[in-house]
Amino acid sequence: MDKGPRASGPLVTGFAGSGFKVDGQATAGGVLLTPEWWRAWDGALDEAALEPLVALSPEFILIGTGATLARPARALVRAIEERGVGLEIMDSRAAARAWGVLRAEERWIAAALQPLA
């Protein structure tokens, strides 16, 4: 993963099967990331699952949709954007790389990375 400058907070350091390595700790599935914390996530892409991220009022939330890019439901996108938080949608590997780059810039963002399989 990214070997450039490191911001504070969790960093995706690699991939482990269908999951991720966050600060060296492997997960079996998806992850939620903020500049302050991370936690394992089952990958359910709904408003309730994203609430802990939205509540932090990030610039935007990176949504990693697994191994391939898939658009989330329009109702979900609309509900999050109505709360003043943008969404950037990409596959989970690209989102994990973007997380590292944007956090190195000390951007106040959050991420929801669905499992890779």
Q: H/E order of the elements?
A: EEEEEHEHEHE
Our estimate of the beta-strand percent is: 25-35%
- Which overall shape is indicated by the principal axes computed on the Cα atoms? globular
Query: Quaternary arrangement of the chains shown?
Result: single chain
Structural class: alpha/beta
Per DSSP E runs of 2 or more residues, the count of β-strands stands at 8
Side-by-side strand order of the widest sheet:
5-4-8-6-7
Number of helices: 3
Residues in helix, %: 10-25%
Query: Which regions have little confidence, pLDDT < 50, spanning 5+ residues?
Result: none
Radius of gyration computed on alpha carbons: 13 Å
Mean pLDDT across all amino acids: 93
* Alpha carbon gap, first and last residue: 19 Å
What composes the largest sheet? 5 strands, mixed
Secondary structure: elements and pairs:
Elements: E1 12-16, E2 19-22, E3 25-26, E4 30-33, E5 38-41, H1 47-54, E6 60-64, H2 74-81, E7 86-90, H3 92-104, E8 110-113
Parallel strand pairs: 6-7, 6-8
Antiparallel strand pairs: 1-2, 2-3, 4-5, 4-8
